[in-house]
Amino acid sequence: MEASPIPIGSCSKEHQKIYKEWFNIADSDGDGRVTGNDATKFLAMSKLSRQELKQIWAIADSKRQGFLGLTEFIVALQLVSLAQAGHEITSDVLKSSVDVENISLPSMEGLDAVAGKKKDLTTNGEPEMNGSSQPHVPTPAKWFTSKSARKTPASAVTSIVDGLKRLYMEKLKPLEVTYRFNDFVSPLLTNSDFDAKPMVMLLGQYSTGKTTFIKHLLRCDYPGAHIGPEPTTDRFVVVMSGPDERSIPGNTIAVQADLPFGGLTTFGGAFLSKFECSQMPHPLLDQITFVDTPGVLSGEKQRTQRSYDFTGVISWFAAKCDLILLLFDPHKLDISDEFKRVISSLRGNDDKIRVVLNKAHQVDTQQLMRVYGALMWSLGKVLNTPEVVRVYIGSFNDKLINEAANDPLGQDLFEKEQDDLLKDLVDIPRKACDRRINEFVKRARAAKIHAYIISHLKKEMPSMMGKAKAQQRLIDNLEDEFGKVQREFHLPAGDFPSVEHYREVLSSYSIDKFEKLKPKMIQAVDDMLGYEIPELLKNFRNPYE
Prior knowledge:
Elements: H1 13-26, E1 34-35, H2 36-43, H3 50-60, E2 67-68, H4 70-84, H5 111-124, E3 128-129, E4 132-133, H6 140-143, H7 160-178, H8 181-184, H9 191-195, E5 199-204, H10 210-218, E6 236-241, E7 246-249, H11 250-254, H12 268-272, E8 275-280, E9 289-292, H13 300-305, H14 310-320, E10 323-328, H15 337-344, E11 353-357, H16 365-383, E12 391-393, H17 408-460, H18 467-476, H19 478-489, H20 499-506, H21 519-539
Parallel strand pairs: 5-9, 5-10, 6-8, 10-11, 11-12
Antiparallel strand pairs: 1-2, 3-4, 6-9, 7-8
């Protein structure tokens, strides 16, 4: 499976050296990113039409980050060279019969003169603006470590993700901290949460092929992978890119600031001892991180044996993941009590869920029809949605399918279904930026509703006597209080959190100590959602549009 839609940066070492020099010329502020403004100035020297350059940018910036790194810059220049040679520019042109490594350098008119000016500036010292030296621009990493939420200069924002970081620190985080959003809903975001690679989580009962699925995609084993008919994976394993093959214990991985797993410390040492990270160098893992989970077993007994909040951990990962795969086996279609709770914990992430009927080669076509019907019936009782969930049918393992057991119709079906699922996976890196924006907006709305709920409960508390009784009354009638908030502020009922969860958390707090409603904070978040995020997307769209 291709990890990327195009073979990014494939060229000779000699050309790579030249492209690196050109990249440094195009990168006006030396931050390792060629922004839209930088690109329009540099690529204008190619003398291609605006329409051609628009297509080139769209292909090179396939992840919609709003800038080009070195590898994307090389792709853009390879496409420029092909366009100058008369090739039609499409997303498949670099995967076609073109010899990528032998694409000639593009013709860039006036580049030598620009390179000469850049060299003179470098020799004579730092370039100056309006007679004074350039101000120091804070890096995005420092926004999360500064003691105060000082406003960040717009010049420091060179991508959509940078913009989201700035908006979070200046607008959303103050609201979350004031109303203790991290204690009720989700931990505060860190720099690593914004920069993390897209994640795919696999869920299912034991021996439904979760670990084998990851191995099948990687085409090799990974550290800590155990496969067998018994419950072999007894822990959460994050499979991600790394310089060498190794397994890192959960307590170690949870305290690494550059990884987005710090929030898992809230589940305690019992969970962290059942959590590990498996690192290895692999081109697919450079694009996607996989989360392998323990098999969900049947019966109430399994729940009581777990020493940590299993469904809570699943819910935490579900909020972070870009795709959630529910795997089923033709011989394990029953949905146990624990599996029901797990699926219920995915509430709010329905758009990420894909169902996979794995090991379908074990039954013939007639049986497969019956199995598919039974699975849809079981899922309909649990998912509680009027829409029909998408179910992929296939056998994701390295063993050859026994053709004698399946007629040509079954073979053709497996191939088409597997292609559809793999296409979904390949699209994940390209959709990662859009997903991040979507999750950020969803979080902002959840934080607003949380602030309304907390401030309403505070308002209902007496100022002097009977506080304990009033608090207990509010907690007992929490569903009615949610209804009051919804009607007062005209909020959608479907956006409200779980009443039971809030009731449980509120029991350990003194409602009287909560903050009153601060309209200025709410207005700041409304302005962010209504004006600043759309403006951010506009600033970092295709510069040729």
